[in-house]
């Protein structure tokens, strides 16, 4: 795999609330590297803390695996509105091999700054809404396991620990 190394759970940086991105920060190289990493993984979204950068930034492209590239760079994102709730299967590049059913709003209104610093608002639904919420969770120090009931979490953590045992530091 090319690109940046992706942190794996239980790395403590994945549980850290990220700092806002300053408007004058040069993010071009980081964003390029994050897209390269995401596509190579292959994933549909990647948050900065997953590559060890504790800033409020994520990239996503929900269409590329189906042929239509739809890259988005979301800087300092926030959900302004969320509607409807539905379960959905989610995977995570930082928790490889684990799929978990997570309840999330079906539709969101997302406000963020793009790579040029312009404020954007976009309505997302279905998988795009789920992906954006998953990546935004990473910026708040939340991983998929944190969205599960205690019993469901125990089951998926056990399966994960068999595949990726935690090694003492």
Brief overview:
The protein has helices at about 30-40, 125-140, 150-165; strands at about 45, 55-60, 70-90, 100-115, 120-125. The chain is of the alpha+beta class and about 170 residues long.
Q: Which features does this protein show?
A:
single chain; 169 residues; alpha+beta; 28% strand; globular
Compile the SSE list and pairings.
Elements: H1 28-40, E1 45-47, E2 57-60, E3 72-90, E4 100-113, E5 119-125, H2 126-139, H3 150-163
Antiparallel strand pairs: 1-2, 2-3, 3-4, 4-5
Structure description:
With 169 residues, the protein is of the alpha+beta class. Helix content is 24%, strand content 28%. A five-stranded antiparallel beta sheet has the order 1-2-3-4-5, with helices on both faces. The longest helix has 14 residues, at 126-139. The protein starts with 27 loop residues before the first helix and ends in a 6-residue tail after the last helix.
The total of helices stands at 3
> Judging from the principal axes of the Cα atoms, what is the shape?
globular
| Sheet with the most strands: spatial strand order | 1-2-3-4-5
Distance between the termini: 24 Å
Q: Which structural category fits the helices and strands?
A: alpha+beta
Number of strands: 5
Q: What can be said about the biggest beta sheet?
A: 5 strands, antiparallel
Order of helices and strands: HEEEEEHH
Which spans have pLDDT < 50 for at least 5 consecutive residues? none
Global mean pLDDT: 93
Radius of gyration: 15 Å
- Classify the helix fraction into a percent range: 10-25%
Could you tell me the strand content as a percent range?
25-35%
């Amino acid at each position: 795999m090319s690109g940046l190394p992706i942190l794996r759970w239980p790395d403590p940086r994945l549980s850290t609330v990220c700092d806002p991105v300053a408007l004058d920060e040069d993010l071009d190289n980081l964003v390029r590297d994050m897209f390269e990493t995401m596509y190579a993984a292959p994933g549909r979204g990647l948050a900065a803390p997953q590559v060890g950068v504790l800033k409020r930034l994520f990239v996503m492209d929900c269409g590329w695996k189906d042929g239509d590239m739809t890259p988005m760079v979301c800087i300092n994102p926030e959900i302004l509105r969320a509607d409807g709730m539905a379960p959905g299967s989610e995977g995570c590049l930082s928790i490889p091999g684990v799929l978990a059913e997570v309840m999330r709003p079906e539709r969101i209104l997302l406000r963020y700054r793009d790579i040029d610093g312009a404020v954007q608002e976009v309505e997302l639904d279905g998988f795009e809404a789920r992906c954006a919420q998953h990546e935004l969770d990473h910026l708040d120090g939340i991983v998929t396991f944190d969205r599960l009931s205690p019993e469901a979490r125990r089951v998926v953590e056990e399966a994960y620990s068999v595949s990726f045992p935690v090694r003492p530091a």
